[in-house]
Input
Amino acid sequence: MARTASISRTTRETQIELTLNLDGSGKVEANTGVGFLDHMLDHLGKHSMCDLSVRAKGDLHVDDHHTVEDVAICLGEALAKALGDKAGIVRYGWSSIPMDEALADVAIDISGRPATVFNVAFGGQKIGAFDVQLVEEFIRRLAAVAGMNLHVNVPYGSNDHHIAEAIFKSLAHALRQAKTIDPARGGQVPSTKGVL
Output
């Protein structure tokens, strides 16, 4: 059964069309109007082996915040929809990814219960024109809407671009692990409760 989802979201601030295939080949088409976000989404899809298409029009004359936040909301909705009842998935995923001098550790639990820990210290306020606070905003919205525990720890790193890139690559690898169907489970939901 295909684990796919399509999400449309229209507000007075953004218009977003997003499609997700959890069992893809890492093909990404991201056009959000926010170049750095497109770059991070490319890493997320490529390294999680998800096919992802995102088209967004936002109030970028205000700033990038609404577009970044709403893309995260749509991706969270797509993840939740594509995972369905989560029968047979591994559920947990973790990854430690270096990017030059930076290291990002990410752990996720697709539990149905949102929680976020974000222990990251950026050195500046911007990566090019991109506000570094929006990395945390994206992570928190994604976890909240997808219904997962998402812990991000960056023990060291001096280049903010490298830190952000390591976070998204590590998230991708953790997601790839967690979303995988485990044949040993025989289609059972990975919880003593019987539901996630």
Summary: The chain has four helices and ten strands. Residues 160-179 form the longest helix (20 residues).
